[in-house]
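Workshop exercise sheet. Pairs work together: one partner reads the sequence aloud, the other fills in the structure field after running the prediction. Swap roles for the next sheet.
Pair: D.N. / O.F.
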Amino acid sequence: MNSELIQLYDDFGFIEKYKNIATRHITNRDSRLKKSDKKRVLEIFEKMGYKAKYDNKERFYKVRIIESKYDFYFHIDIKYGLFELLIGVIDANSKKHLIGGGVAGIYDDILVAKQINEERMPLPSIGSYEDLESILKESLSLYEDFKKEVLKLKP
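Structure field:
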């Protein structure tokens, strides 16, 4: 991971924000929401002001927002109560992937690049739709901060 990209994530406090999400949202394995209702998850997105779709092929929920010349994405995968978040940006014209990926992986990559010896964060988990709403709110805030920083860096 290059220094410009690390700076982008540092500028909006990515490490602290993701660490907060991952440590605050831990549900006992036996209490996790094993299977989510697609309609209910999409309703939660809508309630928060986002138009999401479920991708049957990839089996995740996705939000796409085109702003300026960028196609920003926010994808979540909810399996067995585990919450995996992917954020990034694609050039809207060339369709070239510019920045992003799995948030847990980005977190690990930054720690390695900065030579920070810290344990990996477990994937956040949910036990109810109320948990899902809470983690979505925090994750969408992280996504919005990411968008703002990308637009500052690459107007």
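Discussion prompt: The chain has a mean pLDDT of 93. What would you look at next?
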